[in-house]
Amino acid sequence: MTKGLFDGREIEIACPKCGHQNAKTIGWLRTYDELACVGCHATIKLDHEQFRAGLDQADKSVDDLRRTLRDFGKK
User: Fold this and answer.
1) Predicted confidence (pLDDT) per residue in 49-62, tens digit
2) What pTM does this model have?
């Protein structure tokens, strides 16, 4: 899987059991389907379909913007 622009950014996932905020990078979340809560050790299942689609769209938009800026004024 290619590395996205946002992969190094950290976000917090709240545990549905105890409410603890579990910090993970977006790159980590792209790779794994579940995580263990640091607070209560419950297994948190991650729904990747919508998450990955949103990240892919954001990465594509940034790539499009970079291409536009690179080509700006070349005509």
Assistant:
1) 877 777 788 888 88
2) 0.64
Q: Which helix (H) or strand (E) holds 26?
A: helix 26-31
Of 30, 34, 32, the closest CA to residue 53 belongs to 30
Q: How far apart are CA 27 and CA 51, in angstroms?
A: 12
Q: Considering Cα of 50, then 54, then 60, then 64, what sign does the dihedral take?
A: positive
Confidence (pLDDT) at 1: 46
Residue owning tokens 């946002």 = 6
Say how far apart CA 60 and CA 66 lie, in whole Å. Answer: 10
Show the tokens assigned to 54: 């949103």
Residues shown for the chain: 75
- Between the alpha carbon of residue 23 and those of residues 13, 20, 60, the distances in Å are 6, 10, 25
